[in-house]
């Protein structure tokens, strides 16, 4: 059994790699070299990345690409995406091109409120707790004044604090359920700092509240934390066109639209399909969220919770045909920032936001929702026409060629060959062998 290592974080990067190599990689110098190969020769840049987190050994690259030609509310944008999946950027670009010719994407903000909660236990008279809360609410708001001053200058701050009785879920459990407006910042640090100050003040005030008995004075604060479920920080993106514009792969526009809507109904009705359908949406969303230095875990958690908000996991997007007109839309919660966090620190996130013309958080919400809708359109369009593998494998060809260690000349010939042939791992292998013989 491997002994625990004390003080790993205090070791230098070199020492950490040596320990790792000796302990888990059988002294494999190749692995050590690979880790070091990804160090940036610009020492300052390397240090910046190392300081994002703890125990950094190396940098993990993802492709940073661009999907051009997005027409969003009348503005032409190119969307930066950080993603490894071969076909995502091509699919987004294709959908952008198509919808660019059919009125573009429309996006609107439906809300921008974020939520945080102080979770506490109180096992006493409920009416007294209500009275205490009302007597203390103004003090809570006052206690965070030093924290909210700057945010208020930007038009944000604490919107409301509510006392919520959660004892039907768990004995003694109550909450301060707080809503915030954080403008262009994602707001996690702001919200969490306010919540911790609310909690301290609430607990301290309880100890001197005369109407409470001595046990009622002893409120137990369990934790204070923002919620990544933000159903009131919501954006909607939509495309629409006359059905005849959708004629595709030998299908009439009417047939295409009807089959598309049927595919959406299946995703609405059936959770196994809904998860994969929504994964296709997240292909677009995560890629932009990541490229702009936003928290993709928060976004993922919040969006999937929203997909189950009515008690059953379902599709995030919907489509219909009315009076010969096709509509396709989605509504998703998104807590994003364009200032603070990594957005201004990671050089590529900064560039991504510049590419997007320095959007406000609301504008970024619209762009991200559009990227999700475009991706979803492209995926469902492939699924109901050619099947997903044709396009996917074409884009995956380069990965297969790299796996098979094809030379640049071999790659060129095989890319040309597979323009008119179906790509599969075995077909590529076979063709490469033919070429080599
Ligand atoms: C693959 O990354 C995403 C899809 O599976 C999405 C879908 O099935 O709608 C193609």
UniProtKB/TrEMBL annotation:
Protein name (record): 3-hydroxy-3-methylglutaryl coenzyme A reductase
Organism: Salinimicrobium oceani
Listed GO MF terms: hydroxymethylglutaryl-CoA reductase (NADH) activity
Keywords carried by this UniProt record: NAD, Oxidoreductase
Keyword rRNA-binding: no
Pfam families: HMG-CoA_red
Tagged with keyword NAD: yes
Domain of life assignment: Bacteria
Pathway(s) per entry: Metabolic intermediate metabolism; (R)-mevalonate degradation; (S)-3-hydroxy-3-methylglutaryl-CoA from (R)-mevalonate: step 1/1
CDD domains: HMG-CoA_reductase_classII
Catalytic activity: (R)-mevalonate + 2 NAD(+) + CoA = (3S)-3-hydroxy-3-methylglutaryl-CoA + 2 NADH + 2 H(+)
UniProt-listed Enzyme Commission number(s): 1.1.1.88
Recorded family membership: Belongs to the HMG-CoA reductase family.
């Amino acid at each position: 059994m491997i002994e625990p290592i004390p003080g790993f974080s205090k070791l230098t990067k070199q020492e950490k790699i040596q320990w790792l190599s000796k302990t888990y990689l059988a002294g494999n110098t190749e692995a050590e070299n690979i880790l070091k190969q990804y160090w940036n020769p610009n020492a300052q840049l390397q240090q910046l990345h190392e300081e994002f987190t703890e125990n950094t050994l190396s940098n993990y690259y993802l492709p940073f690409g661009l999907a051009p030609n997005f027409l969003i509310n009348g503005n032409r944008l190119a969307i930066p995406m950080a993603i490894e999946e071969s076909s995502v950027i091509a699919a987004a670009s294709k959908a952008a091109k198509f919808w660019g010719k059919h009125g573009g994407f429309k996006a609107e903000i439906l809300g921008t409120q974020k939520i945080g909660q102080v979770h506490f236990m109180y096992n006493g008279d409920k009416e007294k707790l209500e009275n205490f809360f009302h007597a203390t609410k103004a003090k809570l708001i006052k206690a965070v004044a030093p924290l909210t001053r700057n945010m208020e200058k930007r038009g944000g701050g604490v919107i409301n604090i509510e006392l919520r009785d959660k004892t039907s879920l768990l004995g003694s459990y109550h909450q301060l359920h707080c809503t915030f407006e954080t403008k262009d910042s994602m707001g996690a640090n702001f919200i969490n700092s306010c919540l911790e100050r609310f909690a301290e003040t609430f607990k301290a005030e309880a100890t001197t509240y005369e109407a409470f008995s001595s046990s009622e004075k002893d409120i137990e604060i369990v934790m204070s934390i923002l919620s990544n479920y933000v159903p009131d920080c919501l954006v909607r993106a939509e495309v629409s066109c006359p059905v005849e514009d959708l004629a595709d792969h030998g299908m009439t526009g009417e047939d295409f639209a009807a089959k598309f809507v049927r595919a959406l109904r299946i995703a609405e009705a059936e959770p196994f399909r809904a998860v994969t359908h929504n994964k296709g949406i997240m292909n677009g969303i995560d890629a932009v969220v990541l490229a702009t230095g936003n928290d993709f875990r928060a976004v993922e958690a919040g969006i999937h919770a929203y997909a189950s908000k009515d008690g059953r996991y379902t599709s995030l997007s919907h489509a219909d045909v009315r009076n010969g007109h096709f509509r396709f839309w989605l509504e998703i919660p998104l807590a994003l920032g364009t200032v603070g966090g990594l957005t201004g620190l990671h050089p590529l996130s900064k560039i991504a936001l510049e590419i997007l013309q320095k959007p406000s958080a609301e504008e970024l919400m619209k762009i991200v929702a559009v990227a999700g809708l475009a991706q979803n359109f492209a995926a469902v369009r492939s699924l109901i026409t050619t099947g997903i593998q044709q396009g996917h494998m074409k884009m995956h060809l380069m990965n297969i060629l790299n796996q098979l260690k094809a030379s640049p000349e071999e790659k060129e010939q095989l890319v040309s060959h597979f323009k008119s042939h179906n790509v599969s791992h075995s077909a590529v292998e076979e063709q490469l062998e033919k070429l080599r013989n």
